[in-house]
Design goal:
five-stranded mixed barrel, 24% strand
Protein backbone atom coordinates (compact mmCIF):
# COMPACT_ATOMS: atom_id res chain seq x y z
CA UNK A 1 0.00 0.00 0.00
CA UNK A 2 1.49 3.31 -1.08
CA UNK A 3 0.06 5.68 1.57
CA UNK A 4 1.13 8.83 -0.23
CA UNK A 5 1.35 11.93 1.93
CA UNK A 6 -0.59 15.07 1.00
CA UNK A 7 2.67 16.82 0.18
CA UNK A 8 3.43 14.28 -2.53
CA UNK A 9 0.14 15.00 -4.30
CA UNK A 10 0.93 18.70 -4.11
CA UNK A 11 4.42 18.12 -5.50
CA UNK A 12 2.94 16.39 -8.53
CA UNK A 13 0.41 19.18 -8.99
CA UNK A 14 2.99 21.94 -8.67
CA UNK A 15 5.21 20.27 -11.26
CA UNK A 16 2.32 20.09 -13.72
CA UNK A 17 1.34 23.70 -13.04
CA UNK A 18 4.81 24.68 -14.20
CA UNK A 19 4.23 22.88 -17.50
CA UNK A 20 0.57 23.55 -18.24
CA UNK A 21 -0.54 27.17 -18.84
CA UNK A 22 -4.21 26.69 -17.97
CA UNK A 23 -6.59 25.29 -15.37
CA UNK A 24 -8.11 22.05 -16.73
CA UNK A 25 -11.85 21.64 -16.66
CA UNK A 26 -11.80 17.86 -16.84
CA UNK A 27 -9.60 14.78 -16.68
CA UNK A 28 -10.06 12.17 -19.42
CA UNK A 29 -8.83 8.70 -18.54
CA UNK A 30 -8.45 6.80 -21.80
CA UNK A 31 -8.59 3.02 -21.55
CA UNK A 32 -7.05 0.27 -23.64
CA UNK A 33 -7.36 1.00 -27.35
CA UNK A 34 -8.89 4.44 -26.70
CA UNK A 35 -5.79 6.60 -26.27
CA UNK A 36 -6.15 7.97 -29.81
CA UNK A 37 -8.48 10.67 -28.51
CA UNK A 38 -5.57 12.43 -26.80
CA UNK A 39 -3.95 12.84 -30.22
CA UNK A 40 -6.87 15.09 -31.19
CA UNK A 41 -6.13 17.72 -28.54
CA UNK A 42 -5.18 21.14 -29.90
CA UNK A 43 -2.09 23.00 -28.65
CA UNK A 44 -1.10 19.78 -26.96
CA UNK A 45 1.54 19.56 -24.26
CA UNK A 46 2.73 15.98 -23.77
CA UNK A 47 4.39 14.91 -20.52
CA UNK A 48 5.61 11.31 -20.02
CA UNK A 49 4.52 9.85 -16.71
CA UNK A 50 8.14 9.18 -15.83
CA UNK A 51 8.79 12.93 -15.63
CA UNK A 52 5.97 13.64 -13.18
CA UNK A 53 6.91 13.31 -9.51
CA UNK A 54 5.34 10.24 -7.85
CA UNK A 55 3.56 9.02 -11.02
CA UNK A 56 4.06 5.39 -11.98
CA UNK A 57 4.76 3.87 -15.38
CA UNK A 58 2.00 2.40 -17.52
CA UNK A 59 2.92 -1.06 -18.84
CA UNK A 60 -0.36 -2.32 -20.33
CA UNK A 61 -0.54 -2.92 -24.10
CA UNK A 62 -1.70 0.16 -26.01
CA UNK A 63 -1.06 2.50 -23.08
CA UNK A 64 1.50 5.14 -24.09
CA UNK A 65 2.06 6.26 -20.51
CA UNK A 66 1.83 10.01 -20.86
CA UNK A 67 -0.33 12.95 -19.85
CA UNK A 68 -1.55 15.22 -22.63
CA UNK A 69 -2.86 18.72 -21.87
CA UNK A 70 -4.70 20.79 -24.45
CA UNK A 71 -8.03 21.82 -25.88
CA UNK A 72 -10.77 19.39 -26.86
CA UNK A 73 -13.90 20.90 -28.37
CA UNK A 74 -12.71 24.28 -27.12
CA UNK A 75 -12.33 23.14 -23.50
CA UNK A 76 -9.11 22.81 -21.50
CA UNK A 77 -8.60 19.18 -20.54
CA UNK A 78 -6.02 16.69 -19.33
CA UNK A 79 -5.98 13.31 -21.05
CA UNK A 80 -4.29 10.21 -19.69
CA UNK A 81 -2.93 8.05 -22.51
CA UNK A 82 -2.76 4.99 -20.37
CA UNK A 83 -3.70 4.30 -16.76
CA UNK A 84 -2.33 2.29 -13.85
CA UNK A 85 -3.77 -1.12 -13.01
CA UNK A 86 -3.62 -3.35 -9.96
CA UNK A 87 -2.35 -6.20 -12.14
CA UNK A 88 0.75 -4.14 -12.97
CA UNK A 89 1.69 -4.43 -9.32
CA UNK A 90 0.29 -1.08 -8.19
CA UNK A 91 -1.83 -0.41 -5.13
CA UNK A 92 -5.37 0.98 -5.40
CA UNK A 93 -4.06 4.38 -4.26
CA UNK A 94 -1.35 4.34 -6.93
CA UNK A 95 -3.94 3.45 -9.56
CA UNK A 96 -6.09 6.42 -8.53
CA UNK A 97 -3.25 8.85 -7.81
CA UNK A 98 -3.58 10.98 -11.00
CA UNK A 99 -7.23 11.71 -10.23
CA UNK A 100 -6.43 13.51 -6.97
CA UNK A 101 -3.63 15.42 -8.73
CA UNK A 102 -6.02 16.53 -11.50
CA UNK A 103 -8.44 17.73 -8.84
CA UNK A 104 -5.69 19.80 -7.22
CA UNK A 105 -5.05 21.37 -10.61
CA UNK A 106 -8.69 22.47 -10.74
CA UNK A 107 -10.41 19.74 -12.78
CA UNK A 108 -14.02 19.47 -11.66
CA UNK A 109 -15.00 16.52 -13.84
CA UNK A 110 -13.61 13.10 -14.67
CA UNK A 111 -14.49 11.19 -17.83
CA UNK A 112 -13.41 7.63 -17.10
CA UNK A 113 -13.30 5.29 -20.09
CA UNK A 114 -12.36 1.65 -20.46
CA UNK A 115 -12.35 -1.38 -22.67
CA UNK A 116 -14.48 -4.08 -21.09
CA UNK A 117 -16.04 -7.46 -21.61
CA UNK A 118 -19.74 -7.86 -22.27
CA UNK A 119 -21.48 -9.95 -19.61
CA UNK A 120 -25.01 -8.94 -20.59
CA UNK A 121 -25.95 -11.23 -23.48
CA UNK A 122 -27.96 -8.44 -25.12
CA UNK A 123 -24.74 -6.48 -25.71
CA UNK A 124 -22.60 -6.78 -28.83
CA UNK A 125 -18.90 -6.31 -29.45
CA UNK A 126 -18.35 -2.69 -30.47
CA UNK A 127 -21.17 -1.29 -28.32
CA UNK A 128 -20.53 1.76 -26.16
CA UNK A 129 -21.98 1.55 -22.67
CA UNK A 130 -22.64 4.09 -19.95
CA UNK A 131 -21.60 2.91 -16.52
CA UNK A 132 -24.50 3.32 -14.10
CA UNK A 133 -22.74 1.80 -11.08
CA UNK A 134 -20.03 -0.68 -10.18
CA UNK A 135 -19.39 -3.74 -8.03
CA UNK A 136 -16.01 -4.35 -6.39
CA UNK A 137 -15.65 -7.49 -4.25
CA UNK A 138 -11.91 -7.91 -4.72
CA UNK A 139 -9.72 -5.00 -3.59
CA UNK A 140 -10.04 -2.32 -0.92
CA UNK A 141 -10.50 1.18 -2.26
CA UNK A 142 -7.72 3.73 -2.79
CA UNK A 143 -8.40 5.53 0.48
CA UNK A 144 -7.61 2.69 2.88
CA UNK A 145 -4.89 3.94 5.20
CA UNK A 146 -5.18 7.38 3.60
CA UNK A 147 -3.52 10.22 5.50
CA UNK A 148 -6.64 12.30 6.02
CA UNK A 149 -4.89 15.06 7.93
CA UNK A 150 -4.07 16.96 4.75
CA UNK A 151 -7.28 16.39 2.82
CA UNK A 152 -10.82 15.59 3.87
CA UNK A 153 -13.16 13.38 5.85
CA UNK A 154 -12.76 9.60 5.66
CA UNK A 155 -16.39 8.61 5.01
CA UNK A 156 -18.40 9.81 2.02
CA UNK A 157 -21.43 8.86 -0.03
CA UNK A 158 -21.25 6.71 -3.18
CA UNK A 159 -24.96 6.71 -3.90
CA UNK A 160 -24.30 8.28 -7.29
CA UNK A 161 -20.91 7.08 -8.45
CA UNK A 162 -21.65 8.31 -11.98
CA UNK A 163 -23.41 11.63 -12.41
CA UNK A 164 -27.06 11.21 -13.41
CA UNK A 165 -27.19 14.45 -15.37
CA UNK A 166 -24.00 13.56 -17.23
CA UNK A 167 -25.47 10.18 -18.12
CA UNK A 168 -28.69 11.76 -19.36
CA UNK A 169 -26.73 14.19 -21.52
CA UNK A 170 -24.60 11.40 -22.98
CA UNK A 171 -27.74 9.44 -23.84
CA UNK A 172 -29.26 12.45 -25.58
CA UNK A 173 -26.10 13.02 -27.61
CA UNK A 174 -25.92 9.36 -28.61
CA UNK A 175 -29.55 9.36 -29.70
CA UNK A 176 -29.09 12.49 -31.79
CA UNK A 177 -26.03 11.00 -33.50
CA UNK A 178 -27.48 7.54 -34.00
CA UNK A 179 -24.95 5.86 -31.70
CA UNK A 180 -26.03 2.72 -29.86
CA UNK A 181 -25.37 3.39 -26.18
CA UNK A 182 -26.02 0.68 -23.62
CA UNK A 183 -26.29 1.22 -19.87
CA UNK A 184 -25.03 -1.17 -17.26
CA UNK A 185 -23.22 -2.07 -14.06
CA UNK A 186 -19.44 -2.51 -14.26
CA UNK A 187 -18.00 -5.42 -12.32
CA UNK A 188 -14.35 -5.08 -11.33
CA UNK A 189 -11.97 -8.02 -11.53
CA UNK A 190 -8.24 -7.64 -10.87
CA UNK A 191 -6.74 -9.57 -13.82
CA UNK A 192 -4.46 -9.79 -15.66
CA UNK A 193 -6.00 -13.11 -16.64
CA UNK A 194 -9.43 -12.95 -18.23
CA UNK A 195 -12.30 -14.31 -16.18
CA UNK A 196 -13.43 -17.93 -16.21
CA UNK A 197 -16.89 -18.91 -17.49
CA UNK A 198 -17.91 -19.70 -13.90
CA UNK A 199 -16.83 -16.26 -12.74
CA UNK A 200 -18.83 -14.65 -15.53
CA UNK A 201 -21.93 -16.63 -14.55
CA UNK A 202 -21.47 -15.40 -10.97
CA UNK A 203 -20.98 -11.81 -12.13
CA UNK A 204 -24.17 -11.99 -14.17
CA UNK A 205 -26.08 -13.40 -11.20
CA UNK A 206 -24.82 -10.51 -9.07
CA UNK A 207 -26.11 -7.92 -11.54
CA UNK A 208 -23.00 -7.18 -13.61
CA UNK A 209 -23.41 -6.19 -17.25
CA UNK A 210 -19.78 -5.40 -18.00
CA UNK A 211 -16.50 -6.67 -16.61
CA UNK A 212 -13.06 -5.08 -16.56
CA UNK A 213 -9.79 -4.56 -14.71
CA UNK A 214 -9.81 -0.82 -13.95
CA UNK A 215 -12.18 2.13 -13.40
CA UNK A 216 -13.31 1.49 -9.82
CA UNK A 217 -10.40 3.00 -7.87
CA UNK A 218 -10.35 6.06 -10.11
CA UNK A 219 -14.10 6.50 -9.63
CA UNK A 220 -13.79 6.34 -5.85
CA UNK A 221 -11.03 8.96 -5.83
CA UNK A 222 -12.97 11.21 -8.19
CA UNK A 223 -16.01 11.14 -5.95
CA UNK A 224 -13.85 11.75 -2.87
CA UNK A 225 -12.60 14.87 -4.66
CA UNK A 226 -16.18 15.93 -5.47
CA UNK A 227 -15.55 15.57 -9.19
CA UNK A 228 -18.53 14.93 -11.43
CA UNK A 229 -17.98 11.63 -13.20
CA UNK A 230 -18.98 10.04 -16.47
CA UNK A 231 -18.11 6.38 -17.00
CA UNK A 232 -17.99 5.06 -20.56
CA UNK A 233 -17.05 1.54 -21.62
CA UNK A 234 -16.36 0.00 -25.02
CA UNK A 235 -17.37 -3.64 -25.29
CA UNK A 236 -14.30 -5.13 -26.95
CA UNK A 237 -15.19 -8.78 -26.40
CA UNK A 238 -17.97 -10.93 -25.05
CA UNK A 239 -16.97 -12.39 -21.72
CA UNK A 240 -15.82 -15.99 -21.22
CA UNK A 241 -18.44 -18.67 -21.82
CA UNK A 242 -20.71 -16.54 -24.02
CA UNK A 243 -18.88 -17.27 -27.27
CA UNK A 244 -16.86 -20.40 -27.94
CA UNK A 245 -13.61 -18.57 -28.63
CA UNK A 246 -10.49 -17.70 -26.61
CA UNK A 247 -10.02 -14.13 -25.37
CA UNK A 248 -6.92 -12.16 -26.30
CA UNK A 249 -5.58 -8.67 -25.66
CA UNK A 250 -5.27 -8.07 -29.43
CA UNK A 251 -9.03 -7.88 -29.96
CA UNK A 252 -9.23 -5.10 -27.36
CA UNK A 253 -6.97 -2.87 -29.45
CA UNK A 254 -8.66 -3.83 -32.73
CA UNK A 255 -12.14 -2.98 -31.43
CA UNK A 256 -10.82 0.32 -30.11
CA UNK A 257 -9.71 1.23 -33.62
CA UNK A 258 -13.08 0.22 -35.07
CA UNK A 259 -14.98 2.32 -32.53
CA UNK A 260 -12.74 5.37 -32.86
CA UNK A 261 -15.15 7.53 -34.82
CA UNK A 262 -18.24 7.08 -32.65
CA UNK A 263 -16.28 7.14 -29.40
CA UNK A 264 -14.54 10.36 -30.40
CA UNK A 265 -17.76 11.96 -31.62
CA UNK A 266 -19.62 11.16 -28.41
CA UNK A 267 -16.85 12.36 -26.09
CA UNK A 268 -16.10 15.55 -28.00
CA UNK A 269 -19.75 16.56 -28.16
CA UNK A 270 -20.17 15.75 -24.49
CA UNK A 271 -17.14 17.86 -23.55
CA UNK A 272 -18.34 20.84 -25.57
CA UNK A 273 -21.81 20.66 -23.99
CA UNK A 274 -21.21 19.57 -20.39
CA UNK A 275 -18.13 21.54 -19.38
Amino acid sequence: MANFKPQEYHESAEFLKSKIPFVPEALLILGSGLGFLADELENAITIPYGEIPHFKNSTAPGHKGRLVAGKLSGKNVLAMQGRFHIYEGYSPEEAAYPVRVASLLGAGSAIITCACGGVNKDYNVGDLALLTDYVNLTHPGPLVGFDISGFDARFFDMGSAYDKNYRALAKTIAEEKGITLREGVYFYMPGPQFETPAEIRAIRALGGDLVGMSVVHETIMARRCNMRTLGLGLVTNMAAGILDAPLTEDEVLVEGQKAAKKFSELIKTFVSTAL
